[in-house]
Write a structure and sequence with these properties.
The protein has about 280 residues and is of the alpha+beta class. It has 7 helices and 11 strands. Strands 1, 2, 3, 4, 5, 10 and 11 form a 7-stranded antiparallel sheet that branches. A 4-stranded antiparallel sheet has the order 6-7-9-8. A hairpin with a 2-residue loop joins strand 3 and strand 4.
Length: about 280
């Protein structure tokens, strides 16, 4: 568990973190602040965006109009850090291992507790996460190269247009995973079962067709090795929502730090996105 905090992590600590209740308690107390990949298998993990109510309706419109990169799985009440539809005990102020703060579209630091930054006008939006379909693909015997190489999945800006929601817009961000050609149809079928986790890929093959010029130079994450029998497969990515939020230059936005997701009480296979209007 990379990034575990606190001196002399013990076997007892590791054992307590193997349950959802124990892991959430460790995150809430600050005893664990590492990434959440591979933790709480089968539970829905969520990207998080927290923003002032004055901008929240337009952001929600943007997400609903672009459900592939921005599948909404939960929305909090204004000023309330709870997310009861994702878990009865969630407190968004300290139930993520690490948060990022942005002011006027600029990065302003990382923290492990946002209680001091919470305001009565803040709204939490939870979006589905690619960890869900990655787990399903690996369970089906389809390898994930970035997992094998212990890298952050490569992500790229594209030319794929988004439907605007007033001040929010731009182009889609995608993540890329190389797959053997014969695995692509099965991967599409598996991922289509998870619309709350970006669903089926948005593109297979030539990166230039979606405006990606160099697979070795991702905009986020790290490049992965492509083998001769593989093709690049691109999925809509939740970084799209963060990119839109930052481009809008909102006075204060709080998100999860990359890889440090909210772990919900909801089973991945039971979760559903908020329907598109």
């Amino acid at each position: 568990m990379d990034g575990a905090q606190g001196a002399d992590v013990t076997d007892q600590d590791m054992g307590s973190w193997s349950t959802l209740a124990g892991l959430r308690a460790a995150i809430r107390s600050g005893a664990f602040s590492g990434h959440t990949a591979g933790l709480a298998p089968g539970k829905l993990q969520c990207n998080i965006a927290i923003l002032p109510e004055a901008y929240a309706l337009d952001f929600l419109r943007f997400c609903l109009r672009n459900p592939k990169p921005c599948p909404i799985v939960g929305i909090g009440e204004t000023g309330d850090p709870a997310l009861p539809t994702l878990g009865p005990d969630i407190d968004i102020c300290n139930d993520l291992p690490r948060y990022r703060l942005y002011q006027d579209g600029q990065f302003a630091g990382e923290v492990t507790d946002i209680s001091a930054h919470w305001r009565k006008d803040m709204v939490t939006v939870a979006l589905g996460c690619s960890f869900t379909f990655e787990r399903a693909l690996m369970a089906a015997g389809i390898p994930m190269r970035h997992v094998e190489q212990n890298l952050t999945v490569p992500m790229y800006r594209t030319s794929l247009p988004l439907v605007r929601g007033n001040m929010f817009g731009g182009t889609m961000v995608v993540s890329m995973r190389p797959l053997r050609g014969g695995d692509v149809p099965r991967a599409v079928e598996i991922c289509a079962k998870y619309p709350h986790a970006h669903g089926a890929p948005v593109h297979v093959g030539d990166p230039a067709a979606i405006g990606v010029t160099d697979l070795d130079m991702p905009d986020w994450g790290q490049a992965v090795h492509m083998r001769p029998d593989e093709v690049p497969v691109f999925w809509a990515c939740g970084v799209t929502s963060q990119n839109a939020l930052l481009s809008a230059g909102i006075p204060l936005v709080i998100t999860h730090a990359p890889g440090h997701m909210l772990i919900s009480d909801i089973d991945e296979d039971a979760a559903q996105p908020v329907p598109k209007p």
